[in-house]
Write a structure and sequence with these properties.
740 residues, alpha/beta, Beta-Lactamase, 4 domains, 5-stranded antiparallel beta sheet
Length: 740
Amino acid sequence: MRVKTVIIDKSRKRQLLVPIVAMTLGALVLLVLVVVFLVDRFNDTAIKREQRMVESGFSQQLHQFNDIVVPQVDWDTAVAKIDRKMDLTFADLDFGHQLYTFDGFTHSFFIDGDGRVTYAYVMGNHPPFTSFEPFRPIVLQLLKPIRAAEARRGPIRPHAQGQGPITRPIQANGFVRADGKVYVVMASLVQPDLGMVQPKGPRASVSINAIPIDSTMLSSFAARYLLDDLKLAPAPDLARNRATVPLRTPDGTVVGALSWAPRQPGSVLLHRMVTPLLAAMAMLALVGWTIVRRSAVVVDELLASEMRARHLAYHDPLTMLPNRALLFERLRTMLSTVSSRRPLLALMCIDLDRFKEVNDTLGHQAGDELLKVMSDRLRTLARVEHGAFTARLGGDEFVLVALAADRDAIANLAQRCLGALLTPVDSEFGRLDVGCSIGVAMIDASVREPSLALRQADLALYRAKARGRGCITFYEQEMEAAFQTRRVLETRLRHALDHGAFHMVYQAQVDANGTILAYEALLRWNDPELGAVSPATFIPLAEECGLILGIGEFVLRRVFAETRNWTGVRVAINVSAVQMRAPGFAARMIQIAAAAHINPVQFDIELTETALLTDSPATMENFAALKRLGFAIVLDDFGTGYSSLRLLHRFRVDKIKIDRSFVADLGQSVEAETLVGAIVKLARSFHLGVIAEGVETEDQKDLLIAAGCHEFQGFLMGRPTSPASVNALFAETTGTMLRA
């Protein structure tokens, strides 16, 4: 009986347990299937998100490559020196060498209107034009839209009122496989920006630039968008653990693919849930809730990662302000909202004054701290204004944009902005007092292009900086003409440097008895179109546009050649602050001196206080090298800077030159006489020579002698004269001292 009962109990258990086990196993199987389904969906969603992100990011990368080439091709000078007549030096300097050295473009070509290759530059060399052949098929595809756009655009002519046209870039890009590599190929039409120079034919030359998709580019792109194991594959990878984006030519041919290991949040989740699934027969609800909970966490992490990547792409990492890309997006939207209720858009370009001095004297950490404080102040100001926002363009330049009803409202906002930024910054580096210059453009409904609006504010900022520090300047139409004039002057200055159109004159430096002790070499420029151009005009321009090093070498070569046979007198040569900051300047000067066979001890190098203000290693090395070689160092315009005494203590100069502004006030101001006397005593205490410039009257000379200064330069002693006149004076006074 007991045995039968036991058998019945086991059978009933079996009957009860089997369905439960079956239901449990079925539930587990169903759960597993659901989990597998969810894992696959999560992975698929994540991969698609990353694919869209990579496609968008690479498209933005192509736009950045296009933007690098635009300033070079949309330029009257480029039309003149590429299309009308190929200038290899210009092509190397502004295209081949520059794009290869600074931007990584390994191949640069030009083709003319008939499709012939006129220039080739490959990895620092000039290969045969046949090196273009691997790129010809893709270029032929890119030329079709370019030529069509060129035909629609028509000729570019100068504006009747002097306002230059805003040239729209005409470009196309694509991918090609050549020599076993995949290249990004950009075709850009060479066209004028002001219309002063026209292409020689109906179809202008086209710049072809190619950059390989190599490990460097892939590493940078992967770091920017947080991609793992990014590679360039010959074809789309169909493996489930890889995500790909195909790279196609304009005709749709696949030449390669970007392949990477995508984030797979579902697989991560499944790996974590294996053990709970095996032990959760009685905790199915809890397991399900855990899956949902963990899935939500994974998705949140993925979205947060995407948001971080987008934020980095559109914001400045130091100040966390919007960058140029986001500025243009928002500015385009705000331009579309200009209406009769708010008829004006205030666009302010803000540049910090003396920021470079903070970096040079206190270091980049102090400069970064200053930028953060100024950014916070601008951000606070933008919050107060309805609909306003601020952005950082780069360096020490910011932009503030706001809708306004009238000019008075804009002026009030600009004044509040100036007041906020003029307040000194107290930091761990001490009190930083920099201030700013502001250029303001009032944009109405007629302007819809962000680049044009920003250009107007930029021109106003340029004028504000020219007027002095702490200025607010509003854009005016004549600024456009002034900008064009500056462009013309820059073009003529480049032409003058290329053709050696400068000449030197020499002004005597004499003692109290009229004996000539030295001559100062002065640069002059007489342009066939512009006439005589003052050094006060073209020297600052040369420093801004990067021509000062070439002009400086011209001066050194010409002065050494013209004065190497002069005996008994010294020759003073002015050297720019830009030259002193250039690494290797002293070494180059030594080479020029050796080639001219001159004795360095016969020459003085005149430097302004600005040239010695920086603590850069290059300045210190150049100064020390010039002293070792035997050049004497003269501190020019002494007393006009705020660090004169510190410079005398840090640098072993040989002589100081009293600035003409102090000499002009002698006899009219007791303070000027006292100041000149103090400068002379200071020079004597440091055992330095002293000379006064700008001496124009006998009274000034007598007062300088009374103060202890016995060397003079100015119109009273003689005006600048040609080297031929100085040679004639040597011939007349052979065996005696030169007299002024």
